[in-house]
């Protein structure tokens, strides 16, 4: 049928009947629209890249936005330049509702990851019209087979105060490394770096600042990262600056380039960042110098996943709620997992977890919240030994909660266990199974046997 339109996602759709909207900037948009028409597509509109996202948010903002939303409702295909401004959750939801297929034109790896977050098709920014009409699946599939898998960046952020960002980052890294993956822990806090002190590592080495300098020069390699990193068991640590006054070394472009190189070095890169998200320096100065919060903003922009840490007390929750909007404006559609740390009833009252959960759901639209308990005994033992809690109190409540959070929220790749051993060389599954079996046999033997005879001078208890 030449005049019909196949259902969305069907393999038999002919590109000749596709009604398309092109949201690509400049001359490239006009050229792509002409090529799509030559390939048989019906190009309805050519608009600015951020116009569809703006129309999806508020069609009442103007006549053009309303007309664009009307055309979107009748279109089959939306082709747009992919970035955090143009490819938004609201736009994807609207296109799903209308049955529109989105093809994102990606300039690099970051844009492809953004397209992957939303599950839309990705093409190279200079892809031919026929590839765009074919939804880019064959092109993306061929490139994904040719390119090896790259590591993911997990940024750990929290509002001002001491919610436990560094402790959470350290424990996340240790837990992720238990499955045999190569994990890197990076201290990108330009205000109060403390990973080295908390883990007993020397902070006089080159660390992350050296990686940033070499990344700027284009000489940072996986071998060089291994050389400058400090080992913490199975975790490779890039320590932070040893004096806050060295913050200009962590410039925005340097940090982003270093994190991109780290993707080829480790499977998971956990980055501890500072709380401040202000961009005030760009308002008071028009010079292109370094920015005080550049490291935090660059790490959050590069991250594939954000772990947001909340302190479980009224002040900590209030600070997080007020800073959450700023966090969302920086990270865009990047997934955010909220962890409430130091959970206890003292400062909040009865049913503390439910109270904190309801507050976060109401003011931040949080759908899921995880809790880490107040465990001063394990935390103090780790601080005294200058080691992670996972190393000195592996069976503590805090370590168990981190383990559950990683399994439920971080969604690690398929475990690559090496001979069934953990990072201390112990066969945990067999040991736990043996312990449970011993306890079971002991209980069964106690229940099946008779009660021991009473001691002289004592009466036996009667049932």
Overview of this protein structure:
This protein is α/β, with parallel strands linked by helices. It contains 20 helices and 13 strands. The chain has an eight-stranded mixed beta sheet with strand order 8-9-7-10-6-11-12-13, sandwiched between helices. Strands 2-1-3-4-5 form a five-stranded parallel beta sheet, with helices on both faces. α10 (207-217) packs across α12 (252-262) and α12 packs parallel to α14. It is globular and about 70 Å long. The chain starts with 18 loop residues before the first strand and ends in a 15-residue tail after the last helix.
Brief summary of the model shown:
By secondary structure, the chain is α/β, with parallel strands linked by helices. It has 20 helices and 13 strands.
Keywords:
463 residues, alpha/beta, 8-stranded mixed sheet, 13 strands, globular, disordered N terminus, disordered C terminus
């Amino acid at each position: 049928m030449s005049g019909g339109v196949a259902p969305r996602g069907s393999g038999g759709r002919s590109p000749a009947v596709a009604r398309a909207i092109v949201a690509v900037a400049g001359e490239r948009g006009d050229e792509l629209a002409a090529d799509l028409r030559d390939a048989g597509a019906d190009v309805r509109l050519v608009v600015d890249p951020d116009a569809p996202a703006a129309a999806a948010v508020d069609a009442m903002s103007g006549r053009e936005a309303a007309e664009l939303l009307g055309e979107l409702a009748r279109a089959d295909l939306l082709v747009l330049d992919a970035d955090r401004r143009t490819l938004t959750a609201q736009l994807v939801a609207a296109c799903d509702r209308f049955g529109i297929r989105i093809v994102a034109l990606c300039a690099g790896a970051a844009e492809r990851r953004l397209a992957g977050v939303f599950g839309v098709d990705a093409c190279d920014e200079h892809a031919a019209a026929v590839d765009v009409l074919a939804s880019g699946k064959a092109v993306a599939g061929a490139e994904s087979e040719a390119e090896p898998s790259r590591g993911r960046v997990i940024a750990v952020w929290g509002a001002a105060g001491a919610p436990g960002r560094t402790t959470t980052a350290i424990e996340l890294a240790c837990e992720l490394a238990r499955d045999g993956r190569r994990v890197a822990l990076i201290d990108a806090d330009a205000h109060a770096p403390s990973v080295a002190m908390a883990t007993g590592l020397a902070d006089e080495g080159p660390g992350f600042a050296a990686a940033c300098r070499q990344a700027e020069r284009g000489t940072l390699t996986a071998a060089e990262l291994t050389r400058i990193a400090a080992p913490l068991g199975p975790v490779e640590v890039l320590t932070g600056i040893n004096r806050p006054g060295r913050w200009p070394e962590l410039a925005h472009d340097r940090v982003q380039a270093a994190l991109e190189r780290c993707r080829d070095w480790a499977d998971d890169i956990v980055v501890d960042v500072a709380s401040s998200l202000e961009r005030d320096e760009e308002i008071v100065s028009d010079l292109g110098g370094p920015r005080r919060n550049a490291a935090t903003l660059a790490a959050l922009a590069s991250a594939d996943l954000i772990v947001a840490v909340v302190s479980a007390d009224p002040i900590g929750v209030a600070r997080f709620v007020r800073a959450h909007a700023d966090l969302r404006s920086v990270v865009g559609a990047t997934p955010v997992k909220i962890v409430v740390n130091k959970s206890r009833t003292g400062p909040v009252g009865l049913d503390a977890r439910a109270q904190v959960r309801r507050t976060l759901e109401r003011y931040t639209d949080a759908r899921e919240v995880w809790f880490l308990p107040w465990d001063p005994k394990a935390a103090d033992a780790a601080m005294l030994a200058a080691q992670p809690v996972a190393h000195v109190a592996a069976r503590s409540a805090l370590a168990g909660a981190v383990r559950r959070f990683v399994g439920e929220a971080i969604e690690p790749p398929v475990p690559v266990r090496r001979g069934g051993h953990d990072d201390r060389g112990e066969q945990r599954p067999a040991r736990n199974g043996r312990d449970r079996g011993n306890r079971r046999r002991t209980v069964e033997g106690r229940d099946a046997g008779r009660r021991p005879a009473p001691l002289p001078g004592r009466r036996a208890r009667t049932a």
